[in-house]
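Problem statement: downstream parser choked on a complex file, so we are re-checking the raw output for the magnesium ion run. The parser issue turned out to be on our end (a line-ending mismatch), but while we're here, posting the original submission so the record is complete.
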Amino acid sequence: MKICVLPGDGIGPEITAEAVRVLKALGLKFEMEEALLGGGAVDATGNPYPEATQKLAREADAVLLGAVGGPKWDALPREQRPERGLLGIRKDLNLFANLRPAILYPELANASTLKPEVVAGLDILIIRELTGDIYFGQPRGVREENGERVGFNTMVYSESEIRRIGHVAFQAAQKRNKRLCSVDKMNVLECTQLWRDVMIEIAHDYPDVELSHMLVDNAAMQLVKAPKQFDVMVTGNMFGDILSDEASMLTGSIGMLPSASLDDKNKGLYEPSHGSAPDIAGKGIANPLATILSAAMMLRYTFGLEAEALRVESAVKKVLAQGYRTGDIYERGTSKVGTKEMGDVVLAALA
Ligand code: IPM
Ligand code: MG
């Protein structure tokens, strides 16, 4: 069980350190090796996804990632931006299926900006296609036309790309409440009409799953109006980027949300849904729970270690019940802890 650890930028190194401690505490035989990705990689090598990292990531069974990016690298040309490293590793490892759960822990009900009755008990899973769509479509660029600059990108999906993410989504729905909502913009975009047609075709393989469709603008509205109507949502790369940020905020605590990006053989990259938070980097106050929960997803999806995954998730629930909170989820009457202390109490809860 080889794990490539990519701490990345900003708070990345602090939060991955805690997730690594948790993995080590399980007493399993993990081989872990660290490498560079993102801004730190650009500084050291000029490439946000350097060759040494590519080699390690390809050889590993799973990748644990902190976060990449920060203002320091904002002015760099596009190919050298830290985000390019993230997009590069997703594409290189063929991680087409991005699973982003949005779960509201009862202890954190007050963290949401929505009324408690709207979000209490929220548990939805957004499945975002991650290696296609307008993110990677060709042609793209900015050209001169009739004496002015014209910017263009291409939204493109082949039916095989839609089918493989569709199967992941239907199978995930089968393991949950058997309801799948596919999100598109078929009233305007041909590419997403094909998306809808293919979803309807593969639904025949899953008679036990109830498939519905929603236009993306309505989905954005329904997510804040009545989010509990959803079980599993599946959508393309760009709509998924936007809707998953929206869904994460329903829980009010983006510092709690893990994610998994999988290929077709359960190799995966696991990272918190939040970013590198450069404003609090190095202060020891970042919330490591999303990264710890990402490690739990790794145990479940790549290594098939369901019992160990549940063990880690229960430890996280336990420390919340015990009242431990990092600053981002702190409320009066709870105990404020830093990154490392949060790791300590999770380790204690595991024991
Ligand atoms: C995400 C991020 C990335 C994306 C950026 C950093 C390239 O927003 O993982 O959602 O757009 O996919
Ligand atoms: Mg995003």
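For whoever reads this later: Residues 14 and 123 are 28 Å apart (CA to CA).
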